[in-house]
Design goal:
The chain contains 23 helices and ten strands. It is of the alpha/beta class and 472 residues long. The strands form two sheets. Strands 7-6-5-4-1-8-9-10 form an eight-stranded mixed sheet, sandwiched between helices. The longest helix is centred in the N-terminal third of the chain and has 21 residues. The C terminus is likely disordered.
């Protein structure tokens, strides 16, 4: 019951702030259901979904939520706000009864005999039904799908390794639109009574329309927006899908319930920028990572990689000054920590990957530093590859566009030293390309990789919690 009170409090505060700011309530708020967040906060996210729609849980004698009921409008004192829910993968399989309970709540609200001004769920359901019939959906099915709000992967599918790898393999796509088409090709299956797990692209498109806010739970005290790729990968993908399909950029907010006594809703971008100061740009944090040797260097690279993830999904979330600060801190060593020497002795491939991320961010047009900075990063990357070989990670391995970009940059610099570096870089890349053994491809090997991408960076708990190949 405490989770219900926390969820109500957060929604009341959010709606009051948007009413003051915009002069109206938001029409629709989207959620990404995360089963392990539910295990940690005991259902704050579910409480938010129910309370937005003006529904309250009904507890049984064992204090388990067994049903739901409408909150009367005169008690609610506001409209019933519509929702859109990405409830995928682990949530679907671990908490199916909670998923069905939310679906029941949506249908209960949609059936309430109330005006459109008081009941956005009912209003939007009628609009969706009309759109679906116009799209050629059979009237009976259109009626069922009109009151659906939960979408995800097909039954039995644990996400899409293809989409996960595509985001990381930045050399294989040229626009966010390409990413979104891949994302949407997997997630538009509806979960509602009478159509559980069935393909429903038109219903997905109809119901995502009007989304103004994406709200994701932040319940893990050990993780933060910059250290946790799942905020940008899961919540960011949903926000990007909203923009891709509707043309409108939604707010991306986090319900910070790490301490229930201090629960609040925060802007994901504000939390991210604070995280930069607490982590990547904090001398004490850097020194702590340096004490951890190889693993610490890897964590620096992870944080820089996540900065690019945010940039891909949320344009403008990482400002040019933050990218420049990364260069100043880790390449130019403005804090006088002998940082490059440390990388070289402990984990040169982490340093290489960091430069790789910077170059890809520039190549794809997300950041436009001055020419000298570009050349400096390219020199550092080429020196690392020439000395150690290319690391073969998701982003750099076989990335011919990156190779050409580096060659073009170095080719535009005068001087024998750079010419020699360019020759050595090209020779090392060619050497690896020629001698790289063809790894036997078996279905079992592919299944292992798909289930556990980037194993070195994901603890067993994180792999279970986030299912790196799927959206929660």
């Amino acid at each position: 019951m405490i989770s219900w009170e926390v969820g109500k409090q957060l929604i009341d505060e959010l709606l009051a702030s948007r009413l003051e700011k915009n002069g109206r309530y938001p029409n629709k708020i989207a959620f990404t259901l995360n089963s392990f967040a539910t295990f940690q906060d005991y259902g704050v996210m579910e409480a938010q979904i129910l309370y937005l729609m003006g529904v309250r849980p009904v507890w049984d004698e064992k204090n388990i939520v067994a049903n739901v009921e409408l909150i009367p409008l005169d008690e609610l004192e506001r409209p019933r706000i519509d929702v859109f829910i990405a409830g995928l993968s682990y949530y679907r399989d671990m908490l199916p009864t909670r998923m069905r309970l939310i679906d029941r709540a949506v249908r209960l609200v949609a059936a309430a005999d109330e005006s459109d001004d008081d009941n956005y769920v009912r209003r939007d359901s009628k609009i969706a039904e009309s759109k679906l019939i116009q799209k050629g959906v059979a009237p009976e099915l259109a009626k069922i799908q009109s009151t659906a709000r939960i979408f995800g992967y097909p039954l039995g599918q644990q996400g899409s390794a293809g989409y996960y790898y595509l985001v990381e393999r930045s050399g294989e796509w040229d626009s966010r639109e390409q990413l979104m088409e891949t994302y949407l090709s997997h997630v538009r299956n509806v979960y509602t009574e009478g159509a559980w797990g069935e393909p429903a692209a038109d219903a997905y498109n109809a119901h995502i329309d009007g989304t103004e806010i994406v709200l994701r739970s932040w319940s893990d005290r050990t993780r933060s927006p910059l250290s946790n790729k799942y905020d940008w990968y899961i919540g960011g993908s949903l926000a990007a899908a909203v923009k891709h399909l509707t043309g409108n950029e939604p707010e991306f907010l986090l319900s910070d319930v790490r301490d229930p006594n201090k629960a609040s809703i925060v802007s994901s971008e504000d939390a991210l920028r604070q995280d930069f100061r607490v982590r990547l740009f904090n001398r004490k944090w850097i020194e702590g990572m340096m004490k951890e040797g190889y693993a610490g260097a890897d964590q620096v690279a992870v944080h820089v990689s996540n900065a690019m993830g945010w940039t891909i999904m949320r344009p403008g979330s990482v400002g040019d000054d933050y990218w420049q600060e990364i260069v100043d801190t880790y390449i130019r060593d403005k804090k006088n920590l002998n940082i490059r020497e440390w990388f070289e002795s402990e984990n040169p491939f982490a340093y290489q990957e960091m430069n790789e991320v910077l170059l890809e961010t520039i190549r794809k047009g997300y950041w436009e530093p001055d020419q000298e900075t570009i050349r400096e990063i390219a020199r550092e990357y080429a020196r690392s590859v020439a000395r150690h070989g290319e690391g073969g990670g998701l982003r750099g391995g076989g990335n011919e566009k990156l190779e050409s970009f580096v060659k073009d940059i170095l080719g535009g610099i005068d001087g024998e030293e750079i010419k020699t570096l360019l020759v050595n870089y090209q020779a090392r890349v060619l050497e690896q390309t020629e001698v790289a053994p063809e790894s036997p491809s078996t279905e079992s090997d592919s299944a292992v990789v798909a289930a556990h991408p980037e194993q070195s960076r994901d603890s067993p708990q994180e792999l279970a919690q986030n299912d790196t190949t799927s959206v929660q």
